[in-house]
């Protein structure tokens, strides 16, 4: 009986802790999502809308990660390769580290200080992350030149749809 209960608990835990493709692949952000605040490295608060406005007219890749996330750290070399292979587009890194101190340490430890970084000081559950169905990291999104979502859901920088979407947008 104990073995059955243990297997059941492992099964439930495994199902609830895996990345699942959202049922609806969104192409635009809600007003509430765009008003979500994040902090930059200096602690200055900006909204997602302000970040998108800074990159309007360019293709933008959003990379959701955290220094404590083993999958994110495994993906970092391929994320860097994606960035290196696409010098003509912008990349923004959105951290889900648990504290400002953790965010700062992660940027230093993983040599991210030369990139555009923001931190969700509000934590994982917020209007932006809830709207985009963020249930696991790493996660990647491609935003087009008009700030619409061109690629809603990718879990690896090696996902061929990321590069295909970038190439299509740059034509």
TrEMBL record:
The keyword Isomerase applies. Residues 27-171 form the Thioredoxin domain. The lineage of its organism: Bacteria, Pseudomonadati, Bacteroidota, Flavobacteriia, Flavobacteriales. It comes from the Bacteria. This is Thiol-disulfide isomerase or thioredoxin. GO terms for molecular function: isomerase activity. The keyword Isomerase applies. SUPFAM superfamilies: Thioredoxin-like. Residues 1-18 form the signal peptide. InterPro entries: Thioredoxin-like_fold, Thioredoxin-like_sf, Thioredoxin_domain, Thioredoxin_ResA/DsbE_sf. Keywords: Isomerase, Signal. It holds the Pfam family Thioredoxin_8.
């Amino acid at each position: 009986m104990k073995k059955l209960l243990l297997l059941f608990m492992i099964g439930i835990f495994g199902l609830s802790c895996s990345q699942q493709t959202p049922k609806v692949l969104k192409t635009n952000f809600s007003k509430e999502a765009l008003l979500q605040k994040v902090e930059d490295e200096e602690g200055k608060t900006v909204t997602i809308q302000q970040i998108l406005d800074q990159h309007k007219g360019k293709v933008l890749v959003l990379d959701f990660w955290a220094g404590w996330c083993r999958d994110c750290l495994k993906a970092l070399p391929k994320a860097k390769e994606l960035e290196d292979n696409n010098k003509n587009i912008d990349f923004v890194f959105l951290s889900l580290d648990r504290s400002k101190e953790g965010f700062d340490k992660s940027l230093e430890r993983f040599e991210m200080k030369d990139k555009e970084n923001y931190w969700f000081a509000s934590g994982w559950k917020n209007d932006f992350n809830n709207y985009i169905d963020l249930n696991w990291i790493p996660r990647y999104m491609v935003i087009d030149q008009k700030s619409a979502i061109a690629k809603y859901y990718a879990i690896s920088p090696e996902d061929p749809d990321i590069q295909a979407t970038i190439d299509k947008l740059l034509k």
